[in-house]
Design goal:
mainly alpha, two-stranded antiparallel ribbon, 14 helices
Length: 333
Amino acid sequence: MTTSASKVSRVASDSSNQMDAASAQARFNSADLPSGLHKDQKWRREVVPTLILWAGNQDDAFNITKQDICHALREIISVVYPTLKNVSSTILPNSPMASQRLCDWRHGFASAAVAQLAAFFLNPHDPSPKVTAQVLLDHFTFLYEDLDATSPEKAFRSVFVQQLLLGSHLSATKGFVQVSALDTSSLAKHGIVGALGLCGAALMRGLNLIKSGDIELKAPANTKDGIAKLATRDVRTPVRFNMASGKDSKTACAFSDQNWGTPTRKFTSAAQRRSITQLQDIVELALTSLTIGQEPDPNALSNAGSDDEFALIWFNTTCRLLNGQRTKHPSKK
């Protein structure tokens, strides 16, 4: 199969985010790669995992520029295919394969988050999922270890984040190669701020869809050991009626830059306030994460309030102590 000129033109964009719309019209596979990149399936096994490892630490996961992707690919390809000449100039000008992989990577967070949350609400069955979803959304309780939103140091350590980070990012980097120019050694240990931003936004989206009733929580016919699980491949973007077009559309609920770019960037900014040690601990915690099976604790709710709730994710505990007052968070009944 040979990629046509029109096929390539649809994805020749200045940012990887524009690939989201094009991917629905044009899909690329290994046959679209230059022949030299088929060797030992290194593109899939080494290049893509390394590219995702790098992307997981970018400031804006929805808007990684083509120039930055090309630079990263050039460094990766020079390590993976050191004997191949001119291969970079063959694939880098538009890099549709790379952009598509990053698009799939981003969308994977959204699908996995919905599947993960569905399993949480169905095991055991939650009679009031909309109420529980709001409990978890209040003050970003879903982000915190033990659902304790009173402790800033516990941010990004919840079981929800652990599983999503592991399933949608860390597992996708398996097989990455060491590229000194990209400092992949450090990235593997704590380079996850962009991935954490996607985790936060994807979980927030999933909970909002459950709260609004756009996601129907129904146990699948196939259960294992009595536990209902929804496969990521079975997750579908809900449709809503579009007043402008007069048709049903997935646009309003899509995990896109237009809908979720701003929250993703804010969660990423919050993650960047974590220390290297804290980020490394989050990675290690995710690698040893267990299956979700706990009920949210209503006592973890916070009434602390802020003009910018995202700021509370990284609010410095030391400042509180220096001011002689630790914010109290009364429980909701």
